[in-house]
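Entry type: protein chain
Record version: 2
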Amino acid sequence: LAAKASRPVFLDASGSNSGDLINDVLPRADAVVLLLSGSVFTRSWVLLELYEALRMSLPIVPVKIDGRGYDYARGKADLENLETSLEAANPGALEELQKQLKRRGLDFADLQRELSACLPNMIAVHFSPSGSDNHVAAAMQDILDKVADANKLWHKPFANVVRKVLSRVVSQRGSVAFSEPPCSPMPSQADLSDV
């Protein structure tokens, strides 16, 4: 991916403390590529990185890896019931996440609301690790195209203004309903069904 993009790519696959990623790498990133696997929403640092990416108005491009156990309905349910599902899947992860959020002056309820409203509505690129060289090349190009399209549609200054306005509306009304989550620069499944 780095070779095709002609840009550095940071892969957070260590499962270790991602504080450096959030503080150093995310602010300089063009996008976050989210590798969807069956356990992706069981890691506190992944959840925190995704939330911070949304707060920074970074596009998130999900990639569903065939054979890695990701199920869209289960992912959505896990995000909607994050407190219960996270602790059940990874004991101690909820406490770690809450500690990291508190350290940053952030709230768990806000994280859960943002992630559950945004992530399930994003359309994923499908990737088969056992695919042909042509498939792998096409999947990499799809990822790069989604990043480029997202950056054209959802540039940071505009997204920050939208987020501030929406925050005021929510604080005045208590809630607000959207036909498309404001955090998703990519079209949702519902948007494509009308085409």
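Comment: Residues 173-182, 184-195 have pLDDT under 50 and may be disordered.
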